Amino acid sequence: MTAPIVETKGIEVRFPLPTHFLSSEKPVLHALNTVDVAIQPGESFCVVGESGCGKTTLGRAIIGLQTPTSGEVHFRGTRIDEMDETTRKPIRRDMQMVFQNPYASLNPRRNVFDTLAEPIRHLMPEKSNSDVRTQVEAVLDATGCDPSWQRRLPHEFSGGQRQRIAIARALVTNPAFIVADEPISALDVSIQAQILNLLTDLQEERGLTYLFITHDLSVVEHFGTRVAVMYLGQVMELAETEALFARPKHPYTRLLLDAIPKLDGGSFDKPRQPGELPDPVNLPEGCPFAPRCPLADARCRSERPKLRQIDGTNVACHHTK
Q1: Where does the pLDDT of residue 100 fall: very low under 50, low under 70, confident under 90, or very high at 90 and above?
Q2: Which domain holds residue 29?
Q3: Domain assignment of residue 14, yes or no
Q4: Strand 177-181's sheet: what is its strand order?
């Protein structure tokens, strides 16, 4: 493998919670718990898991919208999480984000041209007005947007058109790495395929690297190169896409795949116990998935498993061999 374009080393994110004025306790929400990932250039690295598992927090920590409580974030071998805004500004050209909801991520008071021109003027101040206009028109064409859209406002577009504009905004500074945070979840099914095809085409044309956050496993199967399965801020399994779907090793991954409707039933021999999601403020001592796992034993409830490689897959489970 080549050197990773993005790498996290033990990053953790804690959110302090409000306390009662008579209480001395200072509770914190554990959003990310010692996450290590290395994303190779040109790949579509997918992150999946239930709502609240830390997928978006991981993407925001990598892109710089959330400061990690501890750990390190590296881009092309350089640590970036400790940089101040002035030092990090040139790197922001190469790292962009597509947000989940195109109805909320575009400023309703700005037309398309101003929306796309702003990142160029902020991150590439050496560009002249004519260069800015040329760059905006080029990225609109690349994303299948009509040049006549430039003077129109977001409310004049459909959801799919808005998401194309949001993708164009992320591409306008010619980045190398894009965090796509559930970019199709707010769209109609008929439009989702168009946006996925657009992302695939742009990746081939521009050599992009994606961190693709989603809860839709059917999308992952056809779009991702590798998959990280997260649960309560922790990576439970990390594998090549084909291997994950053919031979899932972690019980949580198997439960996720079992949730996909199929004719031949699930992969567990004994009935599954749904259990309850542990409190992210007071995480259990052992495996966070133990309260819901059909394979959990005393060791699982007392000792937290670490990621270890088994047959090319990294998995955090005491029972996987």
Answers
A1: confident
A2: 6-88+209-315
A3: yes
A4: 95-98, 177-181, 209-213, 44-48, 226-231, 234-240, 313-315, 308-310
